From TrEMBL:
It comes from the Bacteria. It comes from Hydrogenophaga crocea. It holds the Pfam family DUF1501. This is DUF1501 domain-containing protein. PROSITE patterns: TAT.
């Protein structure tokens, strides 16, 4: 029988509930002691490692990102896609040359705008994870079509942007308050001098970085977000600023007021420490000045690189970062719209990897992409519609690069459930994932330092996977 919600029974969930009882005045000593045990159980890092999630909001079109290149597959792809297919002649500069060729002569190339990322793949520091997406349990096409949702549960509200973003980030429906990045941070935060800096978003608020204890600390592409009234004269008056600072930071007798001021004080002190650290690694200096201009993702990743450079100043050993791009919901204008986006993604990731090399941390930093979902292989005329599984990239010196991970899906849109050739489509060329997000995340988390015993605490469905067809560790990390 599949474990549908093991998260309800984890030590972490028990601690959270004990903490809730403590808030009401019940079981306070036990909660405090259990919290200490939980912290001691987290791994104690002595080296540095960082995970960088690059989220592509809107649902990236997989078929024009990692493109079938061998003549047979490209011909099938072009026939199905029609006017939104990319000609084979345009792909010569981005052909991917894996160390171990795919069976049956299958080849892939990247979008023509992704020469930088193709170079990282062929250079052995990037891998392509094929056909990954949210799954509760392994599913065949017949099981997907079954009405028995107890034996064959499916992710909630497939093909919906906000719901699938949530499932990618949390393994749970929209409204969930903790993500697997944040829960990974829960285990790592004791390794950092300032544990507020364990999980950092350069792209606004995100549930991905929210843990039971770890916070999603938000910064802009330029650095820490300042509390203006505490960092500059108010109405031109230093006296007013001093009064505002006192009001914002002093202890209060009212519980909620005091907690609010504690949060403000934490933000104020963290902003100061972060600003001072970043000042030692100016954006105008190498390697940070080599990022492409007019590229929002590059600006975010430049800031991540500067924070990584400042790791010793800040006392950080383990960090999880979140950056993002939008604009991928290309129901129309796919050819020109995606070309711009793919160029920005490739340029930003290439510059970021080069920066980690120059900083001497290439083997310690791993970036990976994620998105709401893939899209349909079929065209709607000028674009593609919402799908499910997709292809994604993992980049870093510790990545087992120049390889495809997972199963290469056939190029087909058949609707026949009895067609053994086409078990990986659920209509219109929507990919039924052959790899789950939980497996993808578990592989990254294990490299980061999470033990096998702790995987279930951050990935509630990972116990449903295993064996040859659905290994917990996909093997793309050293």
């Amino acid at each position: 029988m599949y474990l549908i919600d093991p998260a309800k029974h984890t030590r972490r969930a028990f601690l959270r509930r004990a903490g809730q009882l403590a808030f009401t005045g019940t079981a306070l000593p036990a909660a405090l002691n259990l919290a200490a045990i939980g912290e001691a159980a987290a791994f104690d890092a002595t080296d540095y490692k960082a995970l960088v999630c690059v989220f592509l909001f809107g649902g990236n079109d997989y078929a024009n990102t990692v493109i079938n290149y061998d003549t047979t597959s490209h011909s099938q792809y072009a026939t199905i896609r029609g006017g939104i297919a990319i000609p084979r002649a345009d792909l010569a500069a981005t052909v991917l040359n894996p160390t171990t060729p795919l069976p049956d002569g299958k080849q892939y190339a990247l979008h023509p705008a992704m020469t930088g990322l193709a170079g990282l793949f062929n250079g052995g520091v990037a891998a392509v994870q094929l056909n990954v997406g949210p799954l509760v349990v392994p599913l065949t096409r017949q099981q997907y079509n079954s009405s028995n949702n107890v034996l064959y549960p499916k992710p909630p509200k497939l093909f919906s942007h906000n719901d699938q973003q949530s499932v990618w980030m949390t393994s749970a429906p929209e409204g969930t308050t903790t993500g697997w990045g944040g829960q990974t941070g829960d285990l790592a935060r004791s390794s950092n001098t300032n544990n507020v800096l364990t999980c950092i978003s350069v792209a606004g608020n995100t549930v991905f970085l929210s843990g039971d204890q770890a916070l999603s600390y938000q910064v802009s592409s330029n650095g820490a977000v300042r509390i203006n009234s505490l960092n500059g004269n108010v109405y031109g008056s230093a006296q007013v600023r001093a009064a505002m600072t006192t009001l914002a930071l002093q202890s209060r007798s009212h519980v909620l007021e005091n907690e609010y001021n504690l949060v403000t004080a934490r933000a104020y002190s963290t902003e100061g420490a972060l600003t001072n650290a970043l000042n030692q690694f100016p954006a105008a200096n190498a390697p940070f000045n080599a990022f492409p201009a007019n590229n929002g993702l590059a600006n975010q990743l430049r800031l991540v690189a500067r924070l990584i450079a400042a790791r010793n100043v800040l006392g950080t050993k383990r960090q999880v970062f979140f950056v993002s791009m939008g604009g991928f919901d290309l129901h129309d204008n796919l050819i020109s719209g995606q070309a711009n986006l793919m160029g920005q993604l490739s340029g930003a990731l290439s510059a970021f990897y080069d920066a980690t090399v120059q900083l001497g941390v290439a083997n310690s930093v791993t970036a990976f992409t994620a998105s709401d979902f893939g899209r349909t292989l079929t065209s709607n005329g000028d674009g593609s519609d919402h799908g499910w599984g997709s292809h994604h990239f993992v980049v870093g010196g510790a990545v087992q690069g120049a390889r495809f991970v997972g199963k290469a899906p056939p190029v087909s849109v058949t609707n026949s459930t009895s067609d053994a050739f086409d078990q990986w489509h659920v209509g219109q060329g929507r990919l039924l994932p052959s790899t789950s997000v939980d497996q993808y995340a578990a592989t990254l988390a294990r490299w980061f330092g999470v033990s096998n015993a702790e995987l279930g605490q951050i990935l509630p469905h990972i116990g449903n996977f295993g064996g040859t067809d659905y290994p917990v560790d996909l093997g793309f990390m050293a």
